[in-house]
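Let us begin with a simple case.
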Amino acid sequence: MEGGLQKPERYGIDWKNTDYYNEELFEKELRRVANACHGCRRCVSLCNSFPTLFDLIDNSKTFEVDGVEYNDFESVISHCYLCDLCFMTKCPYVPPHDWEIDFPHLMLRGKAIKFNKLKPSFRDKLLTSTDILGAIFSRKIISHIVNFFNKLKPFRILLEKILHIHKNAVLPKFSAVTAKSKFRKLSSNDNFANKIAIYTTCYHNYNEPRVIDDLVLVLQHNNINVEIIKDDKCCGMPKLELGDLATVEKVIQQNSVKLMRYIEKGFKIIAPVPSCVLMFKQELPLLFPNDIKIKKIADSIYDPFEYLLNLHEVGELKTDFKQDLGSIFYQVACHQRVQNIGQVTKKVLELIPNTNVNAIEKCSGHDGTYGVKKETHEIAIKIAKPIVREFNKDKAEILTSDCTLAAHHIVNAVGNKIPTTHPISLFKRAYGIN
């Protein structure tokens, strides 16, 4: 029975129930869902989880799900990076359908079971500890040393052998001046009605703070009070993808207190990384459905261009552009697509005269850690190949994505040193702001 036309629904994740970690119950549900996927197969092109699943079935003795060994499903789980595209854009059997299939959250359950059963590798714990990595490697002397060694091929070969981080993967550079330190003395202007608190995200605080610079300037240009949230923690997405739900709970308990201080003062919150926005908007409310603070944060956090488009729709966005941007090749980040806000970045950028945005709704394959691991980097590059083909045909002047890591990964897959920048930096350029 195919799906209907009703809006997809998601249920709370009952991860504190002991049955959630019961492998017998999990296997029963896993096989039920796998059997439905086997009969459908429309998600085969989304990521490597589905081809892996179908290969297991097709190579089994029975050519059916019952011929697959339980332990072999681990490979399916490990290839899922919780992009949510299958749930939001492909699967006809999501709730309120009677089959109530939620493949990403089933994979999350598998990751949580694995995390509780087996100790994660040192590499995986390290890569998902973004606050710790940033705090250590963004120090003035250390950042220069790390950035220097990450460029050396012998060091990258050694890193691959020791930590299994692929030698060809693009690793983030660390900034000696973080966004939070630069804007330590930034104070809002009470003369303006609209107020924004910027959640810098780990990446744009420690690795590319220039994006925060540009976001601040764009908001101030539009007469918006701006403050930087300085004592927040990671959103928890890296630990979620590892299945470490206890740590997710720990960081959100700290974050909810910090963020609520701004919300209670009338601030909206903006984060320039789609994964972080999605975490607060969707994943955390499902993990903690009874937490009122998390619900308020979910209602108050915005993608940068979602907020700018809202300003435009009420006539409050300035359109005093000084420079057009020409042709832009724009990869729509998966974690922005599944927020169901539409192509907000494309709509706002095309307010700029003589600017055309070619939006590509295909996954980059990066997913934070998936694209840098030795065992999955080449797969991540393969997933990006359809974007590379489109880019080579398009011959656009600019390549951009709301997910900066995805943009760097696409450039890596293209094989040429193509300049790329965050869309908010392009918008600042169009304003002519120095």
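The second case is a distinct protein. As before, the sequence precedes its structure tokens.
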Amino acid sequence: MSQTTKHEPRGSQQTKKATASGWIGSVLEYYDFFIYATAASLIFPQIFFPSTDPKTAIVASLATYGVGYVARPIGAFFLGHWGDTKGRKQVLIICMFLMGFSTMAVGLLPTYDQIGLWAPALLVILRLIQGFAVAGEISGASSMILEHAPFGRRGYYSSFTLQGVQAGQILAAAVFLPLAYYLPTEDFNTWGWRVPFLLSFIVIIVGFIIRREVEETPAFAEENSQHEAPKAPIVEAFTNSWKDMLRVVCMALMNVIPVVTTIFGAAYAVQASYGIGFSKDVYLWIPVLGNCLAVIVIPYVGNLSDKIGRRPPIIIGALGAGLLSFAYLYAISIHNVPLAICMSLLMWGVVYQGYNATFPSFYPELFPTRSRVSAMAISQNVGTLITALLPALFATVAPPGAVDIPMTIGSITLAVTAIAALAALSARETNRIYMNDLGNPNAVPVEKAEYNRIRLEAIESAKSK
């Protein structure tokens, strides 16, 4: 479909192909990222750190998970600049190669018993490369899909970026499930855990084949043709969009929910020193089922955000998920597997998706095309960096043997999600703003009746193709 109004860039929109590319790329890259997260909770404390002090090993292993987020702002500066000056397509291919090779390398690392302190040191280095690479994935994929999507449907199509992320997490846990279930503990601890990491060569092959087929977005191509692509998009972002960048930093604190669900929750439930006693293979089903539900929910929420706006789903999702974190941790504390699964489904699979499905359209819509990838990548990754330090904090303030862990961790979680909700409340609504007017605080939204007409035309056009 070709847009001819002065408010929309001219050019051919590869909506379905761009969406498929973003979805598949996110699946593959976040498979890599989350197999590390799973292993950091379930197996790394035993094989990469001294076994003489289990409490310290848990804290150190979860800290290496957080280290990946330390590299994210650095990667965001480099990859964001690349995406705004060289193109969305190029930056996504770079991210894919860096992530694939670093993840394979983790699967080849020797253990602490074999090389001592070199083992955790090399683990940290590879985690830094992972964090650097993933910094450009969501911002690049979201921007590409958004800029290929028709007006009135940007929320729906952009939500597939995060559906891919959830599917990647399902794949990560699903690969671990049969290994943890069928392999003897000794075999799993020596070689079984390496298999998911070595399978990452598929990322490099499949991801490149898919992403090379997508053309640059009409919005970016139009700027390039007019010689308007910025030489310093990061400077422009901080100069013109710093308020919205600060809002995104605060909204990105919502990453506390996956941290509680899949990182601290896993350690709390599985590690013997906490005394809960969930088996590895049983507990792995909790995030798997939650993510399966999220994959179903996300497109509906993305479509809803096109109808009612971006802010309401984010605000409701933030506060609701924060409140449900108490119930989820309580279910683990009383050794109730069915209740823990139900709370995970409700908190992670449904309520949190109000935020998760909406931010891939809301964040890039806050910024102009010239600096979109840079502004989103930097601000989002700074926010996620802050929350990625929380697993080690959680393990410190609520270590094995601590009293009332659900109340302690739940209170911190709710406070963080409240900050995200307030940031969304302070932002302007963007769903009815034309593409070329995005990033302009004074842009006038399309009248609701006219917007609904255009949106319905876009839906009918998609059905006819």
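The chain has one domain: 15-464. The longest helix spans residues 54-85.
Keep these points in mind for the review questions at the end of the chapter.
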